[in-house]
Write a structure and sequence with these properties.
By secondary structure, the protein is mostly beta strands. 15% of the residues lie in helices and 42% in strands.
């Protein structure tokens, strides 16, 4: 009896495990306070799950998704959800397991005077077509 239950349980889990194994998650760089998108592909139509976004300071939030008839889902990440710059992680969860995980950068929306600078190798350029200056940001 136990063997039969184990086999049935394994057979019921195979579609979930098989579909999640081929999942891809893409999140492009974005600017703090503006937001962007996450794209999920490689799952069966009507598959639902969540994306967990974790900030550089370990603050996290969940975004639900459902795969559409074209086999993908696009999830909007609001600017209010990504207000701090730095390296974020996004984890795709389907059927209770992590199917994919990626990191993405959220860029600062303005120059931070404490952590940013602009320097030049010279303050003058001779207009002879050969002179050059290096600018470092």
């Amino acid at each position: 009896m136990r063997l039969r239950v184990s086999i049935i349980t394994a057979l019921l889990l195979l579609p979930v495990m098989g579909s999640a194994a081929s999942a891809t998650l893409r999140v492009s760089e974005m600017v703090a306070g503006i937001g962007g998108e996450a794209v999920i592909e490689g799952l069966s139509v009507n598959t639902s799950g969540t994306i967990k976004i974790t900030s550089p300071t370990s603050r996290s939030f969940l975004l639900p998704f459902t795969i559409n008839s074209q086999g993908s889902a696009t999830v909007r990440i609001l600017g209010t959800q990504v207000q701090e710059s730095g390296l974020y992680t996004a984890s795709l969860t389907v059927g209770g397991g992590t199917a994919a995980s990626v990191s993405f950068n959220v860029l600062a929306d303005k120059l931070d005077a404490k952590h940013s600078s602009v320097t030049t190798s010279s303050t003058r350029i001779t207009p002879d077509g050969r002179d050059a200056v290096t600018v470092t940001v």
